Fold these 2 entries.
Entry 1:
Amino acid sequence: MWQALAFLALAGGVWLHFWWRKRWREASREKAQREEEIASLREEQRKTAVQSEAQQQALFNSIAEGVLVLDIEGRIQLANQALKRLMRVSHEIRGQSVLEAFRLHQLTEVIRRISEDGPVLGFELELPGTGRRYLQVNAAPILDAERKQQGSVLVLHDLTRLKQLESTRKEFVANVSHELRTPLSLIKGYVETLIDGAKDDPVVAGRFLQTILKHTDRLTFLIEDLLTISQLESGQGALNIQPVELQPITERVLEDFQSRAGEKRTTIKNAIPLGLAVRADSDRLQQVLFNLVDNAIKYGHAGRQITVSARVLDNEKAEICVQDDGPGIPADALGRVFERFYRVERGRSRELGGTGLGLSIVKHIVQCHGGEVWAQSELGQGSSFYFTLALASS
Ligand code: ADP
């Protein structure tokens, strides 16, 4: 009996031992499995965090505007690439204050205003350094659920191009008004003098009427040029690009100048090789040639020669040149003659009936064709105006 009990106890102990070992093993396996699951969950969380940060960064970097996120102390938490480009910084600026990073007191002022008054909209600032650059800043506080400020976000927009366009527009309107007013007030003055008695002297009256006619012509040319510019800018009358033979089209333009050239005893030579054709709108191309030859006659010396020539460049474009042996253009003015209303000698151009728009029209038309235009000149040595157009065969 005693022995049987001892055996049972032993057997129970052995069973318990194995049962316990089995449970322990299972528990360890479960624990390892749970740990593995937790580790994989953590890894997934880490990947999601990295991915979401990368997405956030990509999103910020894809914004064209500069974005700056600051913490409550005014330290930079995030700056996108557009902001770094705008501010011309290439190093890491995270953790720095706005003043340390950009040395701009006006931005510090914006941040102070956000904390005190809330969002700041349309704040304009001029950046120091070479070349005028303007920024517009829109800024707002970052608030938590209790509407307590946690930081600020600033969005910076580059206004430079807009400001330049605005100033070009203002300058253009001022120039147009001036150019229209000058002949108008001259015409008015002559008409008043005629009314006051000059009409009774046929010689004086004839001279005054000639002058009035000259100024009305000038007004007409100016208005025609302004209309051309507006048509070109608005893309109206899209170009009708076709193969155009250069030699005959130049000949047609030169025929219109024969009598004017004759008055100045100027000879015009068409040196363009026969058979050379470009891809162009024939009316616009005639206008380019007309304006360049008109200038060459207008500003060239009497009794000299003007040559229109062309050559093939790189087997793909034609370079056309209108060359005169006139007074030439000073080096500092050479780059500016294509600007609207720019004249080397203002008085002389007006006296010769110039509108100051001829070369800007030339430039516009050539660029619409995808070509380039430039001038070469030396004072006293004449001027050469070049432009390129694609070859019809390229
Ligand atoms: P404009 O109507 O005054 O001729 P353009 O735009 O055609 O205006 O030309 C701008 C200026 O460039 C002219 O006022 C003139 O001073 C200068 N210019 C143009 N072509 C010539 C040339 N062939 N020789 C000398 N100066 C020229």
Entry 2:
Amino acid sequence: MHAWPASEVPALPGQGRDLRIHDTATGGRVTLDPGPVARIYVCGITPYDATHMGHAATYNAFDLVQRVWLDTKRQVHYVQNVTDVDDPLLERANKTGDDWTALAERETALFREDMTALRMLPPRHYIGAVEAIPGIVPLVERLRDAGAAYELDGDIYFSVASDPHFGEVSGLDAEAMRLLSAERGGDPEREGKKNPLDPMLWMAARDGEPSWDGGSLGRGRPGWHIECVAIALDHLGMGFDVQGGGSDLAFPHHEMGASHAQALTGEYPFAKAYVHAGMVALNGEKMSKSKGNLVFVSTVRREGTDPAAIRLALLAHHYRADWEWTDAVLEEAEERLARWRDAVSRPDGPSADALLAEIRTALADDLDSPAALAAVDRWAAAQTADGGTDEGAPGLVSRALDALLGVAL
Ligand code: 5CA
Ligand code: ZN
């Protein structure tokens, strides 16, 4: 699948600091030490009802990771998927009478437009579940042949008991896992499973649903977790630097993915850090497709809001916080954008050297974008109050905001 065009990342003097980031698996901050090529996998959308502000906030967090790494003069190998076949997508298409492939294509196209408008840097590889199927089948066969997977009425399940590290990503107890499994696509109630938590790797063809040739598995379609594992292993390999997504993916998705990969390869870990963004809510409830309480990036753009203001609204919240989307959040971002634009519109201003260092320090410290915004606010206030004589300063501020925060003034 093609991704979307990259916005230019302006060059900055000096270089940024190494990223310290909260890792769900260890429950604390870790200093990432990627090689010259940092490797990151971020779970992509299931393409219906995209792109809402919750999606945008999560992708904003991982865009910052990429920008911090680029600022340390590393290359970034970023991979993202599109879950372009899955139960909820098929259910939605059935309900509306849409063709499921047309729905997926239309929503993926809209997502690309939104990502471009928000200046999110594209992944190097953008891979659909459907196109990954030929790579998924042999992985499921290998798991089955190694005794890490078993058949139940034609469906193939992964045995969580096959990975000694199972449970280490989310750190949840069995009861919490069971509840979340039922809530998030699992089937803990199904009879005949070795462990109620065991997730499906391959679902045998169902009447009226799309299916693909699965070799010795028979016709069917892939489970959700193995999709991301196959894509990540194919393009990044084991031990990549960051596995990313919203906090609702920690269990079961990232837990199961790690176990699939570790059982497959015998290597540990799947990812060096598991990084999760908080949930954006609307009217007191998590913004979610199933509840339908959504604010779309495309709607707000169509209403005439500058995408840079949307981006500032996202950046005003720490990525790990759960927060609420409101009109006031957007209004505040629009006011801030206007203040900043005014401040950089003059030919000279207060020196921006300290500001650049502050933004770099804030972002390297678990992506503290609110602290970065506060630093820019102080520079803009000083510019308004007494100005300054540094001729290059406003230009440097503009370039820094674009390169490090994806905000074009
Ligand atoms: N296709 C799978 C991942 S493989 C999926 O979860 N798709 S999604 O469309 O449901 O979500 C895409 C990303 O947005 C995920 O990382 C998810 O955690 C995140 N996300 C979904 N809802 C919210 C929300 N309300 N706030 C923040 N992030 C969210
Ligand atoms: Zn995923």
